[in-house]
Amino acid sequence: MEKDTSATALQARDLIKIYRMGTVDVHALRGVDVDLREGELVVLLGPSGSGKSTLLNILGGLDRPTSGSVMFRDREIDMNNERTLNLYRRNHVGFVFQFYNLIPSLTARENVALVTEIARDPMPPSRALAMVGLGDRLDHFPAQLSGGEQQRVAIARAIAKRPDLLLCDEPTGALDSKTGVLVLDAILRINRELGTTTALITHNAVIAEIANRVLYFADGRIVETRLNSGQRAPSELAW
Amino acid sequence: MTSLDRKLIRELWRLRAQVLAIALVIASGTALLIMALTTIEALEETTAAYYERTRFADMFAEAKRAPEYLGRDIAEIPGVRIAETRIVEGAILDMPGFSEPVVARLMSLPERGPELLNALVIRSGRLADPTRPDEVVVSEPFAEAHRLKPGDSFDAILRGRKRNLQVVGTALSPEYVYAIAPGGLMPDDERFGVLWMGRDALAAAFDLKASFNSVTLSLLPDANERDVIRRLDGLLSPFGGIGAYLRADQTSNWFLESEIAQQKNMSRIMPAIFLAVAAFLTNMVMARLIQTERREIGLLKAFGYGNWAIGWHFAKMVLVIGTIGVLMGSVIGAWLGHWNTELYTKFYRFPFLLYRPGPAGFVIAGAISLGAALAGSLAAVRSAVRLPPAEAMQPPSPPIYRRSFAARTVLAGALDEPSRMILRRIIRWPVRAFLASLGLAMSVAVLIMALQWVDAIDSLAESVFERAQHQDATVAFSDLQPIGAIREFEHMPGVLAAEPYRFVSARINNGHLIERQGIVGVPTGAILSPVFDVERGRLEVPPGGLMLSVKLAELLEVKAGDTVVVELLEGRQPRVSLPVLQIFETYIGKPAYMDMAALNRIAGDGRVISGIHIRVDASSRTALLTTLKDTPHIAAVLFRHAAIDTFYKTMGETILIFVGFFVAFSMTLSVGVTYNSIRIALSERARELATLRVLGFSRWEISYILLGEVGLLTWVAIPLGAVIGFSLAWYMTSAFETELYRVPLVLRDATYGKAALIALAATLACAAIVRRRLDKLDLIAVLKTRE
C-alpha cells in the first residue's frame, strides 16, 4: 500500500535530546527530522541506545526534546505546556510498551476501560479486546494471561480510544516468535481497519518487512530510510 | 465505579497490612485526642448537672458559734437568694476491725423539711429521723470501705464522749465529690468519712443549741460576690467567723476543678504531641508509598490522565486510609473516654455519669488527622506528577555512588560487600535515612515521654513523703491548744519525738491579687516537718516574714524582698504587712510558711498550737492508736504511710493506667513506622534483591541487606529518640503544672533502656514478618518482567 500522496500526520524537525546522567551528557538524539503520513506503518530499526525510544517518547508527548519542534496535523505542539501534552496524549496517541505495563489489579476489560473512560470517542472495551482476539478473556487479571495475551490487552488498551497515532515500543521484545506474530497481526489489523498511523520500534530486522517504510537508526540519527515495495504479512515471518 | 476507583480498592486490599499499620498510627493520635476531649466534656457536664440538681451552694462560711437569729440577717444581705445555717463538727470514729482512728466530718440535717442547699442523694436506706439522736447517714464511699449498710452501728467520740451511732442510710453530697480529710491530699475512704445527723442531736452533742457554726449561701445571678463576702464576714466576725469563701475555693470543688484543668492541659499537650508525631509518620510513610507508585503515575499520564485526576486518585487513597484510622480512633477514643471518665468516678463520687460526647471532639480529631495525612501525601504526589511520563515509567536511573574517604580506610576493607551496600545506601540518601531514623526516634521519644510519668511520680512521692517529711503521724486538734499540750503526747506510748505546728486560715494580698491560703507556723529548728525545697532540701524559717512557695509567689506576682498584706481569718483577725523572705519550690499545693512564734505573736492568741507531728516506735503503734482514739480535742490523725499508700493507689489507678495507654499507643506508632519502612524498602529493592538471589546470595544474605539497613537506622534512632524524648518530657512537665501539682522532670536510665528495648522488639517483630515475605518472593518472575 503506497501512502506517498496522503497528508502528513506528524512532522518532527531537528529534534535534539540530551540527557544528563549524573556527570555525563548523553546525546540521545542529534538532530532528527521525521514525517509520518496518515495511515502509514513505519518501523524504527536500530541497535539499543540508538535513540529510537527517545524519538517515540517525544513524538507521543511522553518526553520533551532539548530542542526542535513537533507538528501534529500542521499544528505545532507546545512541548513545554504540560496541559497541551496531556490533551495530545489523551485525544490522539495510543501507546504499547515492551513490558505491557498493565495495571495488575485490574482485569483485561478494566485495563482498557481505564483509557476509554477519559477518551472522547472510544469503542467499547469488549470490542477493542475482540479486535485483538481476546473476546473470551475479558475478565482475566494480567497474572492469568500469557505474555502474548498481556501484550494484546495493552494493544487493545491503546487502540480503544481510536487514536490517530499508535506508538509501539518493542511490542514483541519480550515475546517468542509465535506469540510475537499474533501481536503484530493485531497491530497490522488496527492499522488497516482503523487507518491508524503507526510507528513501531524493533531491533529485529525481520519485523521491518511488515512496514510501509523503515527508518534505520544509529547513534541518535536516522541513517537510512527504506520504502518497502510490498508489505509482508506477519504470518510469513519467522525469527 | 470507574476503573481507577476499582484499582484503588484492589490496591488498598493488596496493601492491607501497610494500610492497617498507617491507619493504626492515625488511630492512636485520634483516639487519645478524643479520649481527652470527651472526658473533659463528660466531667464538666456531669459536674454542672450534679451541682444544679442538688443545689450546690455558691458561698460558704464558718464561725465558732453564731446565734441562730443571725441566719435571717445573712439571708437579707443583698444578692443572697437562700442562706442555710447548719452545724459542722469533727469527730474520731472507732470502726470495728480497724485499728487506726478514723476522722469523720459530722454535718447537720435540717430538723424539718428537705435541705435547701447541698441536698444529699440517698444511695441506700433513708435520711436520719430527727427524733432519734443516734441515727446517721454515712457517705457512700466510706460505707463501701467499711462494708457498712443500714442497720450497722459503730462508736464515735463526740467532744470526748463515746456514742454508738446507727447507720440508717448511705448518701452522696455535692460538697464531697472529692472527699478528703482536712489536710489530706487524696481520698482515703478507710480513714475519712462524712456523717449526717439530725441538727438537734448534733447541737446537743456539741453544745450549740440555737446556734450554728457553718452557713452556705446561694446567690442571685447579679450578686456582687465581693460585697456579699464583706457583709457576711462583718456579720460573722464577732462570732469567730474565719472568712467566707466562694465555691471555687471549696475543697472538693477546688480539687475537681483542678482535675478538669489538668485534663485540659493533658488534652492539649499529650494528644497534640501524639498527633504531631502520627502526622509526621503518616506523611513520611505515605510519601514513600507514593514514590513506589511512580511508574503507574507515569503510565496514567501517558494515557492522558491530568495531574489533578492523578492527584485526586492518590488523595482518595490517603483519605480512605485516614478515614479507617479516624474511625478506629473514634471508636477506641470514645470507649477509652467513657472508661476514663468512669475511672474518675472512683475518686470523684458522682451519683450519675453523663457521658454524651458531642461531635466537636470527633470533628477536631478527624480534621487534624486527615489533614495531616493529606498534606504529607500530596507533596509526594506533586513531585511524582511533575516528572515527564517517559521518565516516570523508567526505573529511576542508577544513583551515583562515590567512594568516600572512609571507604578507602583499612576499616572499610574489612567490610563485606553486603555491609558496604547498606552503608553506601545510607550515605547516598542521607536525608531519607535521617527521616526514617527520625520516624523511629519519634516513637522512642513518645515512649520515653509516657514512661517518664512513672519516674516523675516516684520522684514526687520520694520528695514529698520521704525527704520532706519525717513524722509518722500528724495529729490535728479540734481547737487551739496551749503549747504545753505537747507534753501530753510526748508521754503517750511509743512516741519518740513530737513537734508542734500552728495553722491559721488567711488571705494574702498583693494589690488586687488575692489568694486564700492558710499559713503554717513552723517552730525554730523543725526536723519532722520542716520547710522543704525540692532542690535545696530543708530550709530554716527566718523570723519576721513569710516563706512562699513558687506557685503562690507566681499567683501573687511577688518575689523575695516584696511585701504582701496578710489578713488572718481567725481570732482577732489582724491585718498586717509582711515581707516575703524566701521563695521555695514544692511539687504539691501552694503553701506559705512562717516562724511559729512570729505567727502566734501576730495572731495574738498566745503561745498556742493547731496540732503536732509525731514519730512513733513501730512496736508500740497499737497501744498508741488505742490511746489516740480516746483522746479529746483531736479532729484528725493523718498517717504518713497511709498517705503514701493512698498516693500510689490513686496514681496507680489513674495516671499509671493512663500511661499504660500511652505506652500501648507508642508501641503502635513504633510498629506502624517500622513495618512500613521495611515493606517500602522491600518494594523499592525487590529487583535488586532478586538479582542478588540469582547471583547466588542466600536468603539470609539478602535479608541482611534489606533488614540490616533498618537495623542500623534503629540503632541511630535510639539515642536520637532519647534526646527528643527528653525534650518532650521537659516540655510536658513545664506545661503541665497546676495549682495542685508540679511534675518533676526525672528520667531514670532504666526508662531510656525500656524505651530502647521496646523499639528494638518492634523492629525485630516487623523484620521477622517481612523476612517471611522475602522467602516467599517469586524471584524469577521479578527478574522476567519489570516490576
TrEMBL record, chain A:
GO molecular function: ATP binding
Matches recorded under SMART domains: AAA
Residues in ABC transporter domain copies: 10-237
Pfam families reported for this sequence: ABC_tran
InterPro entries to which the protein is assigned, alphabetical: AAA+_ATPase (IPR003593), ABC_transporter-like_ATP-bd (IPR003439), ABC_transporter-like_CS (IPR017871), MacB-like_ATP-bd (IPR017911), P-loop_NTPase (IPR027417)
Keyword terms: ATP-binding, Nucleotide-binding, Transport
Keyword ATP-binding: yes
CDD domains according to UniProt: ABC_MJ0796_LolCDE_FtsE
Family the UniProt entry places it in: Belongs to the ABC transporter superfamily.
Annotated protein name in UniProt: ABC transporter ATP-binding protein
UniProtKB/TrEMBL annotation, chain B:
Matches recorded under InterPro entries: ABC3_permease_C (IPR003838), Lipoprotein-release_system (IPR051447)
Transmembrane annotation, as ranges: 269-290, 317-339, 359-381, 429-454, 655-682, 703-732, 752-770
Coiled coil start-end: none
Keywords attached to this entry: Cell membrane, Membrane, Transmembrane, Transmembrane helix
Entry membrane topology: Multi-pass membrane protein
Domain ABC3 transporter permease C-terminal, chain residue ranges per copy: 269-389, 661-774
Localization annotation: Cell membrane
Taxonomic superkingdom: Bacteria
Family: Belongs to the ABC-4 integral membrane protein family. LolC/E subfamily.
Name listed for the protein in its UniProt record: FtsX-like permease family protein
Organism: Rhizobium herbae
